Amino acid sequence: MAVVTLGVHIVDVLARPVEAIPPGQGTVVVDQVRLTAAGSAAGTAVALAKLGNDVVSVGAIGDDDLGDILVTMMTRHGVDVTGLVRRTADQTSASILPIRPDGGRPSFHVPGANLTLTTSAVEPGLLAAADVVHLGGTDVTFGLNDPAFFEMLAAARSGGTIVTMDLLSNMPDLITGAGAFLPYVDYFLPNEEQAMAMAGSDDVVRAARKLLGEGPRAVLVTLGEHGSLIASADGVERLPALEVDVVDTTGCGDAYCAGFITALQHGKELLEAARWGTAAAATVAQGLGSDACLTDLDGVLALL
Fold it and tell me: Do 206 and 192 form a contact (C-beta atoms < 8 A)?
């Protein structure tokens, strides 16, 4: 297998454009409502599959209608969902996202079964069999913060598996806990707020350098409209964002991860891989939802 995505799985319900929540029983007619597979593992998995990768996704979802919908959507996009475990006592995680005209995305969120994910959900040998393991949302999958799981990551890396990691929340207490994973990660891909919170710094460059010292080969910090910052042993470099008409920023970080991982699978060096990530994020920003406008790798690379 090529890529294993492991972590947060969410069903997103998105509507745009939304300028305000109407009072009482008021109704607002919007242009578009969409349902997508999202979250730092599921959203990245779908994007990876659309970019031509073989993907197995591992996580915890509810034994409910939302879980059925999530499985159907991911399967339709070509993701192997045999790694998903169903929980009878917890619902599938879900978010309602009213997207503002400028692309901003406040949310109403239920963490659900994501909080129940533990090392026992990971089949023996699965991580070691992968070219890349992407950890999506280690700040909220508390059950993976486990010495047994770290041993699995270390064993996989010793056999040549590359480990990448992204986060889900911007909550400092949760983000700080995810720092325990950094010694077992090759590439860490947080956003600016997450990087500074984890490093305890108000400067993104200092934050990236500090996180780099925790073990990764490189730290790639996404900066929204300002592109991304890449810190490695060779120094710190910035890549600009691509100029596109932004509809919705949901899933741009997941798409960046997917583009970056895809480039690694194609043998690209760090900065070129970051450029592929930039192009994937710019593609998604042009539509509604975490996989918007993604069709195939050629379509993404055309932006470059």
Answer: no
Q: Is 61 helix (H, G, I), strand (E, B) or coil?
A: strand
267 to each of 207, 238, 260, 272, 283, how far by Cα in Å? 28, 21, 11, 10, 22
Give the DSSP letter of residue 22. Answer: P
Contact 279, 69 (CB under 8 A): no
**Residue 252: per-residue pLDDT:** 94
Measured CA to CA, the distance from residue 122 to residue 108 in angstroms comes to 29
Please name the residues in contact with 132: beta carbons below 8 A apart, sequence gap of 6 or more: 2, 3, 4, 161, 162, 163, 164, 261, 264, 265
- DSSP single-letter state for residue 184: G
Question: Amino acid identity, residue 229?
Answer: L
CB 16 within 8 A of CB 99: yes
| Residue whose token pair is 């997103």 | 12
The CA distance from 245 to 301, in Å, is 17
List, for residues 79-118, the tens digit of each pLDDT value: 999 999 999 999 999 999 999 998 888 899 999 999 999 9
Residue range 3-301, CATH number? 3.40.1190.20
Domains of the chain, by residue range, sit at 3-301
Closest CA to 258 of 81, 25, 52, 12: 52
pLDDT surpasses 60 at 195: yes
